[in-house]
């Protein structure tokens, strides 16, 4: 079990995304305070293992953690911290692991295979988390106590309003027993997601960038002077010669005449470089070279500009895909879209998790009405509200089939919500719920 101090608004988007990437059908959020759902809280505490086991392979359950470390949260970037914590990170853990931010950039941890908190502390955490969770999902107070199921593969989510004696275990078992999908749909959803990404990629032309050398660079004087950098360097050289004319008028005149002849001709690159190298050599051999400051350096700068223009580095150039490659890509795109449409048609024919939640709620609560909540904008949440008497049965509503032992399933938990628990996932499961690790 991981524990990472975090606030609700920061934690929940990461938890929901992680559950979706992992392939869960839904994410269950329990919105009930102890005062209004005392029996339900008792069931959550006593039947922790049973509820986790019945939901772990299908539905991630969001639960509170009573610890809150504001000093740790203030010292660490919670967004950066959470992006490093995903369900995949816990895959190889034998049980679960407790992590808190350490003094450095990495978290520190210890093994915690059992729930580390007392019943009183856990109940207090559930109660304290309700208001913030409900506010995050925009659930009205009058709808509580309730269980919110985010249906990650459906077009709508379900809010199940609870009776006083509602059994959460029976509700979860009914949902998990008939999740609204058929055997083999797990692999179909994986294929659907892969094909969706593949279709997006195939819809884009697959051209490429390539480094290409200039096949006709400027290597004559006239073309070199057309390069702004080269022209600026030659103008700078002419000005520099003017500043040292008093040192050696005769040499200055010779250099200026040679420079005029060079710039007015169409000499090749070799002649230009020879002239510039000659200036450097003449300065080095001049008896008054200390009175010619910077001239040799300026000549080398001009030489560097000429060499750069005459032998430019390769440049990146975009090459569109060939007609043959485009035709092959479009053929693959058509096949991908055809298979994707086939899968979508097949999967859309299933009742879905939302329908399963509504059916399970009616079986547990009795007669109910279902209505979309008006939460502003386009709300996905549909509320299931009991309207008749409770069905006949045990009023206590609590069931436990596992009283001790290790957790058989795995559950994403978060709460307070200043902390988040994540149970690790086994490599595979028996029967038709076998799920492979997604890349």
Shape: elongated
In angstroms, what separates the terminal alpha carbons? 22 Å
Q: What characterizes the major β-sheet?
A: 6 strands, mixed
Q: Report the helical percentage.
A: 40-55%
Tally of separate domains: 2
Strand content: 5-15%
Order of helices and strands: HEHHEHHEEHEEHHEHHHHHEHHEEEE
Low-confidence stretches: 1-6, 68-114, 394-439
Number of helices: 15
Mean pLDDT: 73
Strand order of the largest sheet: 2-1-5-6-10-9
The number of strands is 12
How large is the radius of gyration? Answer: 37 Å
Which structural class is indicated by helix and strand composition? Answer: alpha+beta
Short précis:
With 439 residues, the chain is of the alpha+beta class. The protein has helices at 8-22, 38-46, 48-55, 70-75, 78-83, 119-137, 168-177, 185-202, 221-225, 228-243, 249-264, 269-285, 295-310, 323-348, 352-365; strands spanning 26-31, 59-62, 97-101, 107-111, 146-151, 157-161, 208-212, 315-319, 368-372, 381-386, 412-415, 419-422.
């Amino acid at each position: 079990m991981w524990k990472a101090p975090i606030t609700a608004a920061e934690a929940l988007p990461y938890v929901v995304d992680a559950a979706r990437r992992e392939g869960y059908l839904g994410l269950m959020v329990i919105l009930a305070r102890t005062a209004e759902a005392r029996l339900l809280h008792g069931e959550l505490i006593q039947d922790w293992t049973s509820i986790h086991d019945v939901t772990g392979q299908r539905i991630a359950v969001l639960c509170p953690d009573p610890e809150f470390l504001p000093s740790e949260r203030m010292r660490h970037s919670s967004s950066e911290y959470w992006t490093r914590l995903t369900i995949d990170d816990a895959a190889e853990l034998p049980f679960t692991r407790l992590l808190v931010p350490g003094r450095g950039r990495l978290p520190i941890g210890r093994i915690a295979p059992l729930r580390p908190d007392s019943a009183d502390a856990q109940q207090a955490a559930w109660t304290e988390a309700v208001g913030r969770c409900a506010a995050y999902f925009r659930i009205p107070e009058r709808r509580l106590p309730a269980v919110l199921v985010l249906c990650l593969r459906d077009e709508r989510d379900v809010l199940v309003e609870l009776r006083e004696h509602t059994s959460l275990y029976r509700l979860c078992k009914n949902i998990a027993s008939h999740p609204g999908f058929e055997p083999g749909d797990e692999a179909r959803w994986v294929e659907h997601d892969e094909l969706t990404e593949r279709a997006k990629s195939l819809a884009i032309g697959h051209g490429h960038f390539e480094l290409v050398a200039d096949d006709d660079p400027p290597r004559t004087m006239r073309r070199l002077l057309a390069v702004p950098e080269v022209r600026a360097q030659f103008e700078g050289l002419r000005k520099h010669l003017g500043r040292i004319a008093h040192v050696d008028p005769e040499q200055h005149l010779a250099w200026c005449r040679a420079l005029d002849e060079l710039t007015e001709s169409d000499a090749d690159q070799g002649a230009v470089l020879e002239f510039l190298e000659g200036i450097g050599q003449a300065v080095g051999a001049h008896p008054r070279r200390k009175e010619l400051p910077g001239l040799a350096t300026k000549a080398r700068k001009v030489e560097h500009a000429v060499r750069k223009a005459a032998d430019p580095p390769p440049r990146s150039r975009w090459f569109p895909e060939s007609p043959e490659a485009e035709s092959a890509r479009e053929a693959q795109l058509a096949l991908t879209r055809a298979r994707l449409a086939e899968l979508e048609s097949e999967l859309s024919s299933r009742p879905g998790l939302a329908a399963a939640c509504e059916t399970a709620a009616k079986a547990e609560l009795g007669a109910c009405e279902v209505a979309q909540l008006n939460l502003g904008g386009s709300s996905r949440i549909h509320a299931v509200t009991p309207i008749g008497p409770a069905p006949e049965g045990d009023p206590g509503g609590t069931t436990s089939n596992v009283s001790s032992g290790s957790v058989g399933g795995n559950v994403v938990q978060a709460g307070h919500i200043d902390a988040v628990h994540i149970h690790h996932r086994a490599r595979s499961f028996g029967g038709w719920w076998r799920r492979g690790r997604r890349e």
